[in-house]
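Aim 2, interim progress. The first record below pairs a target sequence with its structure tokens.
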Amino acid sequence: MCVVVAVAHPAIAQERPYFVTYDDHLAEPKELEIAVASTTGLPKENRSVYTAPWLEIEYGVTPRWTTELYLEGVTTTRDGSGFTGWRWENRFRPLKNQHRINPVLYVEYENVSEASRIQKEIDGSGSLPFEPIADLNEERAHEIEGKLILSSTAGAWNVSENFVIEKNLSESEGIEFGYAVGASRLLGAAAGGRSCVLCRESLSVGVEAYGGLGSTPESGLSDTRHYVAPVLGWRVGHEMTFKVSVGFGLTEASDRALFRVAVAFEP
């Protein structure tokens, strides 16, 4: 989650400001990071506005393995509030050194309800359900999600592509597919190891696009959600990072807009 001011290798060490798209950044071994984030959705057809907060606890197990725990909830203007579940994420770098294209393998177990709104990824088809949160929380799902992450860095630029597959272990729904792509860059060159707050070296900007690609029972892009979102990351000192994003819905099934904000720190 952090946008780090690099010391020796700025293009490699700098984490990008994406919310949905993953690059090849992994936490350093024994490095702990805690982040608080939220997604606020503006649905269509006068449906209830919602805010879905979540907590991330990230830990670097080895130089090539990062694990992360998510706890999430939701509150709405008219449909109630509640705790919606938890996720356990693991990211693995199969190659030891940096390459022109850096792959990362991603596996996540999800124990969430139909009320989940954080939209850390979007896959399959159909709009979000807008029944009362208490009713949606009664429908829980155990899911396995996998991603192939490809990331390329050239100078201050990063381009990343993610292909998503998800399987609901609680229902016979087939396999759902999704995608996320992003491009971002640092606004300034490396600061030679110094930390700055209001300078170009502490800022990273970009854009990402993400959405669903249907499923094995329902192929095609009809009734799928897609968004395009400018993103901004701001590193404040050595330990804290802010990220913000506004996602604009592109299809009828999408919400009108998604506002995302996150703050992360290294204790």
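The second target in this work package is listed in the same format:
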Amino acid sequence: MSFFVDPSWKELLELNRLSSFDQVWACQAAWIETPNDDRGGWSGVGRVALATPEGGEVGVYLKRQQNHARRTWRHLYRGELTFAREFQIIRHLQRHGVMTPTPVLFAERRVHGNQQAVLMTAELAGYRSLEDISTQISALPLSRQRILLRAVARTVRAMHVAGIQPRSLYAKHLFVKPRGEDYEVVLIDFEKSRRSFLPLLPVFFDLVTLNYRTGYWSRSSRLYFFKQYYAAEKLDYWQKLLWRLIARRSQKKRKRVGN
């Protein structure tokens, strides 16, 4: 069994009797969305309010899964638990300076023939998803819109430079918070992520996904985002070609899903 606890959270977890796998596994946390029951097992997430010594509380998200694995070239037989992959990706991105939820605890074990994993992350207090604020973006002054788009674009770029392809780059997985004149951007949900050693592929597929799922962005905003992704005032020939391919693919996907 592997077991990780962030040292700064150890005392608080002990106070809430969540310092062992059995305690975390048995924790009462209502699912915040319907658990997944594919891949031959199940996987779900709930919110837990941890009591503090001062009488307050701190929110965390607790993910639990059993036999919910995906096969990789390193794990051809039993597969790798998706939360194990997510934990590894989070740690990798943090080493590369990309903001993610803070991993509080991760553990995995095999019991009675079942593979089990738990992953606890700190709640993103003060942040809202890009999807939640979609209707408010157009009401912002153009200068603020561009600051937000630039912050998101550069965070996505930093993730790709770190060699990570989330494969589900949705607006609901990008959390933002104003910080002075700028915005902080945090990426979440890396359960489907993978390492990529071919730079162009993750750029194309991830930006197509984000592009066609942000129908509230204007065309000029999309182009500005793409320029900021490459930190370019003017796109070169290959960047223009990639932009056209992304726009064309996004339009086809919107028509397919009726957006």
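The radius of gyration is 20 Å. This observation will shape the mutagenesis plan for the next reporting period.
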